[in-house]
Design brief:
binds magnesium ion; alpha+beta; binds adenosine-5'-diphosphate; Arc Repressor Mutant, subunit A; 10-stranded mixed β-sheet; 3 domains; binds zinc ion; 484 residues; 15 helices; 3-stranded antiparallel β-sheet
Length: 484
């Protein structure tokens, strides 16, 4: 029997508001523990929550970007559970009437749209520390930091539409892009601004009914979403192959060992004793407010990818890479607009050379050479004044200071050698040094040609134009060199 996986995601997104969702404490990561708290977010008796309108706007903006139906009226509910990070003993969330339903997320790297089930607002809980700040061991105790209590969250629940771990990883990356494009969250996975639970079950290939699912909690990197699912699919596959059954439960992922492990039995909705939040009125969104939010939506990642392929002629994979963040997409577009080369050529420079240099340097894109300077560099290559190989060295030199690409090229002595006499001298030296290759070429083995061109390029220290070298080699060897 062959089995197929069915995967659905539940994602928590911290909204990029200035203050928390029900009080005026700052919404900020990394402060001293328990310094961003007040009686409201600590759940003191007698305090009352007041809804932060900015959190509602961001949540609705995200919902509209994802094509959800945003309800004119939704309700808050109490989700009751007892845990040390939850001082009130309940979380204010939304239950049977969420902010938004439906919608879909077009994936960046798969030809698929992940349908969304719902999107709702809720508050975050605090954080338990099992080691002291700074990493010292704690002797048999845990500490709790309430700074995160009341940070505004959006929870997005998908339909079980995904079939592979790669699609799940792509989904989270694609959602991350929407967060950056809409500015609704910083999407920082290390700081927990984006957290993903993955649900997965197996069923006989082609079957309609869903199998028993397992929920894997708190996956904190894009890569770990795929790794955890791979491990869990393998585990469930072995159970089913052995005739055993999958237990409906919640599991954790041990990233070091690459295995999932049982956390707890699956809780059901009735375990939480949900009831309507009596301290908050219904959340009403006026039509004008929604229209304003809709009108303010920026171009979204899928639209930008489509524009890159359809208008600028980029291959789909290049478009996906260049549109991955609004900053990179803006950089590419600005460069392409200033450059005589085709957008696809400019895209290759950004994807291959610029991104490689960025990985090796601190400061990111804001410290990189401006689009105008990269455009000028690519133009030098286009006009044959600089070889592509030498241009890579010039690019590295553009990070410091504001020298023009031409000045850097001249200072480094990397201008392309266009003097045929010098090229012919190098060619004669190479032909004299490799008589056996010349004989092979004359014998009809055209593959040696690239070897000979390579030798000339080497003598020129990358400054010769390989096309010109080929032409001059052809002239030197008569009929032995085929037309390019
Ligand atoms: P629960 O009631 O256990 O929380 P839900 O129906 O609310 O389950 O779904 C939670 C998440 O699990 C959703 O993302 C959904 O797409 C996914 N899901 C539901 N059933 C399955 C299944 N059989 N296999 C895989 N994922 C599933
Ligand atoms: Zn507070
Ligand atoms: Mg559920």
């Amino acid at each position: 029997m062959t089995w197929e996986a069915v995967i659905g995601l539940e994602v928590h997104v911290q909204l990029a508001t200035r203050t928390k969702i029900f009080c005026r404490c700052p919404n900020r990561f990394g402060a001293e523990p328990n310094t961003l708290v007040c009686p409201v977010c600590l759940g003191y008796p007698g305090t009352l929550p007041v809804l932060n309108g900015a959190a509602v706007d961001l949540a609705a903006r995200l919902a509209l970007a994802l094509g959800c139906r945003v309800h004119a009226e939704s309700f808050f509910a109490r989700k009751n559970y007892f845990y040390a990070d939850l001082p009130k003993g309940y979380q204010i969330s939304q239950y049977d009437r969420p902010l938004a339903e439906g919608g879909e997320l077009p994936l960046a790297r798969h030809d698929k749209r992940l349908r969304l089930h719902r999107l709702h607002l809720e508050e975050d809980a605090g954080k338990l520390l099992h080691e002291a700040p700074g990493g010292a061991a704690l002797d048999g105790v845990s500490l709790v930091d309430f700074n995160r209590c009341g940070v505004p969250l959006v929870e997005i629940v998908s339909e079980p539409d995904l079939a592979t771990p790669a699609e799940a990883e792509d989904s989270l990356r694609s959602l991350h892009q929407v967060l950056l494009y809409t500015g609704t969250s910083d999407g920082n996975l290390e700081e927990g601004s984006l957290r993903c639970d993955a649900n997965v079950s197996l069923r006989p290939a082609g079957a309609r009914a869903l199998g028993t699912k397992v929920e894997i909690k708190n996956l904190n990197s894009f890569r770990n979403v795929a790794r955890a699912l791979e491990a869990e699919i393998a585990r469930q596959g072995e159970l089913l192959a052995a005739g055993a059954t999958v237990v409906h439960e919640t599991r954790g992922f041990d990233a070091e060992r690459g295995v999932t492990w049982p956390l707890r039995g699956k809780e059901e909705a009735h375990d939480y004793r949900y009831f309507p939040e009596p301290d908050l009125p219904p959340l009403r969104l006026a039509a004008e407010r929604l229209e304003r939010l809709r009108a303010q939506l920026p171009e979204l990642p899928w639209a930008r990818r489509a524009r890159f392929t359809e208008t600028l002629g980029l291959p789909a994979a290049d478009a996906a890479e260049l549109a991955a963040s609004p900053a990179l997409a803006d950089y590419f577009e600005a460069t392409a607009a200033l450059c005589a080369a085709a957008p696809r050529t400019v895209g290759n420079w950004v994807r291959n050379e610029l991104l490689r240099e960025l990985k090796e340097r601190p400061g990111g894109l804001v410290r990189a050479p401006s689009p105008a300077r990269l455009a000028a560099l690519v133009d030098l290559v286009e006009r044959g004044e600089l070889s592509a190989a030498a241009a890579k060295s010039v690019l590295g030199a553009l990070w410091e200071g504001d020298e023009s690409p031409r000045a850097a090229m001249e200072r480094l002595g990397l201008a392309q050698v266009r003097d045929d006499d010098r090229l012919v001298t190098w060619i004669e030296e190479v032909l004299a040094a490799h008589p056996e290759s010349v004989a092979e070429l004359r014998g009809g083995n055209v593959k040696v040609l690239s070897f000979l061109i390579g030798q000339v390029m080497k003598r020129s220290a990358g400054r010769a134009d390989p096309k010109r070298v080929r032409a001059l080699l052809a002239a030197a060897l008569g009929g032995a060199v085929p037309a390019p």
